[in-house]
Fold this sequence. Notes:
The chain is an all-alpha fold.
Amino acid sequence: MARPRSAGYADQRDQILAKASALFAQQGYTATSMNQVAAACELSKAALYHYVRDKHALLALVAEAHVKRLEAVVEEVLSQPLSPEARLRELIVRFVREYANAQNEHRVLTEDVKFLEDTEREQVLAIERRVVNAFADTVATVRPALKPVDLHKPLTMLLFGMINWMFTWLKPAEDGQRLTHEQMAPMVAELFFGGLGAVSVPAAPTESPASRKKTPRKETAL
């Protein structure tokens, strides 16, 4: 009979994921050992293996937990009775805030997911695609003319380009850096909305029968 989990099991595992993501972000997944993770968590290595099977499973948990949190943010915002513009603004602001509090996890997502097995990586990518599609659909509700010519997804990818890589240069803790993520969040929204209205919608191209066969692409913006 399996031993029941303690009341603090979930909290302890969350702490393990946070410490592991910090180590992975600072020194890379391949250079990080389970001994180092255990030491950072103030656990014995045997106790660490009570929560995670191995380092590979730890990476999968870090990546999946991060994208699931992002998807939860999307679901929460979409459930609110907001106008299309207010909804998109809220999504942008919430994601900037989320990334500000999960910079280690985001770096792991962008740099270390390649170490996952195909099935694990596809699980993470599937969640990413749902998040991107939700953003793209919201962009299309603000400017409906974008969807018939498939511009809502590329513009969403440009938006994520602004949000995703902010952690590489915006470092409020450093001397001389006055801007915070909280201050930058509405600026990103204003910049996107200012440019969104200026985008010219091209005429829909005439498709030949052969061009209708599209090769599936694994593109994500997160």
